[in-house]
Amino acid sequence: MKRSTQSWTAVGVVVLVGVVGSIHVAGAQRGTALAIADANDSDLNTALNDELSVLGNVRVTSHASARYVLHGSVTRLDVVRDGDRNRIECEVSLLLSERRGGNVRLMLRGRAAGRGVRVEQLTDSVLRAAVRGALRPLPEQLARR
Hints:
24% of the residues lie in helices and 42% in strands. It is an alpha+beta fold.
């Protein structure tokens, strides 16, 4: 079995490699508005945008009208090759803070794994699953604030 690993890590909130950017959240009671800003990882941004668009009380908006900012990063993405099959493991970390003042309100983590032949397609699916898992409690938590 041939093993090759790629990894991105983060320390606390400061991302060392694989900075994602921010999603801005506004008005939790009226359907939380979100916007993606300053993003370097387009795959994660796409996954966040797609997954946020299907959440019940969440919508994408500009930074100026945001109440909260959702910072995100891929904290781990490992690819293990075993012959013609691949196993991919992904972890994402999200941090919800107030736009004004930056007080941390919520920390979210999600992880997922998958096996398959096509690395790019599999990586996208596993990343989306990790993002979906991390975002699952967000609507309920925002409704409480």
